[in-house]
Structure formats: C-alpha cells, structure tokens
Amino acid sequence: MIRRTEDSSDTAAFHLLKSSAARGMPCPCNDAIAAAIGRRGPASGASALRRLERSGAISIERAHGWRTVTITEFGLTTQGEDA
C-alpha cells in the first residue's frame, strides 16, 4: 500500500516547492500547488502542504500572512504569501 505522502500528487507538489526554493523564486500559492497536482482550488494546495509537512519532507513557518517553506533534506527555503 502506498502511504498518502508517497503518492504522485504529493511528489509533484514537493518538486514544485523544491524547484522554487532552488531557483530563489517565491513560494507558490495554494492555487499553483493545486494546479501542479492536477486539482483545483486553494484547499487542495493547502492539503498537499499539510501532508508534506506531516511527512517531514518540508517545514513551514507562518507569520503575518507570509510563509517560509523549508525543504528539510536540502535546507532550501522559499517564501511567499500564505495563500
């Protein structure tokens, strides 16, 4: 059985975040994350972030409407609006 954090949608979300961090780009919004996993709406993107955070693949710090996502394995970060 595949764990939820190992499915292809979470892999796509992880690669989008890692790519953004590696390139020094802003953190993708929840809608962009949802599009990357083949879904619509910010709730789908937010759910993907929660699953990745629970799995330990990323950590998220939030403050004043902004989020900093750290790719745990590589120590890369990307920042952007928490939306």
What does this protein look like?
By secondary structure, this protein is α+β, with helices and mostly antiparallel strands. The chain has a single domain, classed as Winged helix-like DNA-binding domain superfamily/Winged helix DNA-binding domain (Arc Repressor Mutant, subunit A). Helices cover 45% and strands 22% of the residues. The chain contains three helices and three strands. A three-stranded antiparallel beta sheet has the order 1-2-3. A hairpin with a 4-residue loop joins strand 2 and strand 3. The protein is globular and about 25 Å long. The N and C termini lie far apart (32 Å).
Estimate the helix proportion, in percent: 40-55%
Overall outline: globular
Gyration radius, in Å: 12 Å
Spatial strand order of the main sheet = 1-2-3
**SS-based structural class?**
alpha+beta
Low-confidence stretches: 1-5
What is the beta-strand fraction? 15-25%
CATH architecture: Orthogonal Bundle
- CATH class reads Mainly Alpha
Give average pLDDT, whole number.
92
Look at the structure and name the CATH superfamily: Winged helix-like DNA-binding domain superfamily/Winged helix DNA-binding domain
Give me the number of helical elements: 3
